[in-house]
């Protein structure tokens, strides 16, 4: 008898072809297995294409009325129309609100989070309060803030600060705590002391994680600003969505929501990239 | 000979949720200047705890520990440590890792660089000095950790199973390296290991510990001469020491 492997491959029946197909899928779907960068990008784009196809199908195919879902083309023309009639200023005011509020929150949260993470007495004092505030939805404070500070810019910014500050403090504190004890210990035996170990070891080690925390919480800050703009505002992306709803311009609502997603995606990608460039040692 | 480290009547009790653990009981040990001492014993017998107490990372419940006649009060750069899992600073290149201790001391940049290069060369990592730790194999990372510990020139070097995570071949290479370094410029070294051969090959004395509670069972003086090599393992004296030590470790 000849080599049994060769013999097997000669007699592939229809049944075994099916089996072979299944094993290809099995090969691709291995938990945690890495996928080539190129394929990852293709798969990501594929999802967007499928959504676009589905959207086209239900609108152009008249499965859903354009009263409820606008067609991709009318959404696109609404976008160009809006951009030429002042939508840019709505976009920029929203970005301005998020960035200002988030930046103020970050300036306070960074040192505070580091201290809470590094020193247990400070954590014991601050953590319960921040954990409590964290579970009070920022949007619930909108009526109160309007009552206190009116419906100007400071109210929107205050909402964002309130929403992101506790999250930032608690998550940064956690990033600091995640630094391996053995790294701290070895640095003591190399001559650092309890004061400079924070700057020389703990902080540099946790910086990529802190950067990641900033990226995540910034994403949440986006949702707070929209809520704030839906209540008592006269500009911004949230406001323009509300305006469109009042005038039944469903395509303009779509534009507002899509723009939010696109800006969010861009910011997220830039921060992820920045993290990889700044902290190459970590990737 | 001068005493470098003195451990007198040291006990250590850990208080845990499931009650107290007597990790060490009545330990007495003197390590002389430029002596190499290995500590060996079953896992959980308190080897790391003893080393950490000398390193100042843990405090003794009873007794006293001195380094060059000074009571030990916390960790310091006079007692460098190398751990099993390397603990390199991942955001620093090999060279900056090795320079770290010198920088803390305020050594100027030029001297720092020279010393670091000398030790990086010594552990055979010259071409790798600008890489980050994550780009190195386990054995290479441990070489860096060793170079980092040596470059700081501590009075005592404390090694906690430094080669425990390495494969056998690499481990033997590292033992040769350490032997070579120590023979060229003797240092006070205390090394914890669970490898009997490693303990005997490198040390002037081997401390054998028993567990629960951790006690010193016996201290073996190893007289294999000054010039030891890999082949020393094959000599009959070496095998004799190995037999005695293994029996002592196994006996209750
Ligand atoms: N931080 C700790 N808290 C509680 N128990 C500990 C602690 N460290 C060590 N022990 C206990 O002390 C004993 C000795 O541990 P260790 O010194 O790590 O042993 P070895 O290094 O010889 O394996 C073990 O029983 C261990 O569980
Ligand atoms: Mg141990």
From TrEMBL, chain A:
The lineage of its organism: Bacteria, Bacillati, Bacillota, Bacilli, Lactobacillales. This is Binding-protein-dependent transport system inner membrane protein. Residues 91-275 form the ABC transmembrane type-1 domain. One of its GO terms (biological process) is alkanesulfonate transmembrane transport. It comes from the Bacteria. GO terms for cellular component: plasma membrane. PANTHER family: ABC TRANSPORTER PERMEASE PROTEIN MJ0413-RELATED, ALKANE SULFONATE ABC TRANSPORTER-RELATED, MEMBRANE SUBUNIT. Gene3D superfamilies: MetI-like. Keywords: Cell membrane, Membrane, Transmembrane, Transmembrane helix, Transport. It is found in: Cell membrane. It holds the Pfam family BPD_transp_1. It comes from Liquorilactobacillus vini DSM 20605. The chain crosses the membrane at residues 41-60, 95-120, 132-151, 157-176, 222-242, 254-274. It is a multi-pass membrane protein. Belongs to the binding-protein-dependent transport system permease family.
UniProtKB/TrEMBL annotation, chain B:
It holds the Pfam family ABC_tran. This is ABC transporter ATP-binding protein. It comes from Liquorilactobacillus vini DSM 20605. One of its GO terms (molecular function) is ATP binding. Residues 5-238 form the ABC transporter domain. Keywords: ATP-binding, Nucleotide-binding, Transport. Coiled coil: none annotated. The keyword Chaperone does not apply. InterPro entries: AAA+_ATPase, ABC_transporter-like_ATP-bd, ABC_transporter-like_CS, ABC_transporter_ATP-bind, P-loop_NTPase. PROSITE patterns: ABC_TRANSPORTER_1, ABC_TRANSPORTER_2.
